[in-house]
Amino acid sequence: MSVTAADLSILLPALVAGVLVTATHVPLGTQVLARGIVFIDLAIAQIAGCGVLLADQLGFEPEGAAVQVAALAAALAGALLLTWTEKIWPEVQEAVIGVVFVLGATGSVLLLASNVHGSEHLRDLLVGQILWAQPSRLLWAAVVYAAILLLWFGWRERLGRTGFYVLFALAVTVSVQLVGLYLVFATLIVPPLATRRMIRGRLAAAWGIGIVGYAAGLLLSTSLDLPSGPVIVWVLVALALVWYAGAARADSSMVRKAR
C-alpha cells in the first residue's frame, strides 16, 4: 500500500510529535539509566493519567486548561513524593517506584469503572493517539519542551534531585497526552539503552534512533493498517538491537586490531 497525500497530512504532524518527544526524552532517559530508576516514567505517567481521568470525571473539557493543570499537578505530586522517598529509602527506590506505578494503574481503572467509555479512555492513555496530533497542541508542547531542554542543558548541575524530578514530571505530563504511555517509556529508555556503550556521539546517535524509529514505525503502521503506537515501539526496539549489535561488533574489531 502506497502512502498518499492524505496519509502524509496525518503522518507529518505525528512525526513532528515523535521528534519533539524524542528530543526531550532521550537526554532525560540517559539520566534515568544512570540513576537506575528505569520505571520512574511509567509511574509518573500513570499518575499524570490519573489526573487527566479525574478531570474528565469532573466534567472538564478534554483539551481544556483544567485537564492540563490536573495532569501536571498529579505528576508533580508524584515526582515530589519520589524525591522524598529517594532521600529516606534510597536502597529500595526502584521498588517504591513500582508500587507507585501499580497504584496509578489501578487508580485509573477505578476512576473508569463507572464510565461506559472507560476501556476506550484507558486504551488512549496507554497506546496514545499520535495520528491525531493537532498543530495547536504541538505548538505549545514545543514551547514546553524547549524550556525543559534549555534548563537541562544550561543548568543541569544546579537543578539537583528535586529539579530533575520536576522537569521529568513536566515532560512526561505533556508527552503522555501526545503519544501515550507506551511510547513515552520506549522513547525514554530504548535509544539511551542501545547507545549505552558509546563514549562519543551518544546523544546524537540516540536521537537518530528515536527519530528514525518514529518515521519508520509510522510508515509501516500506515502500510499494514496497524495501530501506530505499538508498531513504533517494536520498530524502536528492532533498531536499537541492530545498533547495539553493530556497535558491539565494531568494538570487537577494534580490540582485535589493538592486539
CATH superfamily (homologous) name? ABC transporter involved in vitamin B12 uptake, BtuC
CATH topology: ABC transporter involved in vitamin B12 uptake, BtuC
Structural shape: globular
Domain count: the total is: 1
Per CATH, the class reads Mainly Alpha
Query: Helix coverage percent of residues?
Result: over 70%
What share of residues are in beta strands? under 5%
Count all strands and give the number. Answer: 0
Describe it for me?
The chain is mostly helical and 259 residues long. It has a single domain, classed as Orthogonal Bundle (ABC transporter involved in vitamin B12 uptake, BtuC), CATH 1.10.3470. 83% of the residues lie in helices and 0% in strands. It contains 9 helices and no strands. α1 crosses α7. The protein is globular. The protein starts with a helix and ends with a helix. The mean pLDDT is 85.
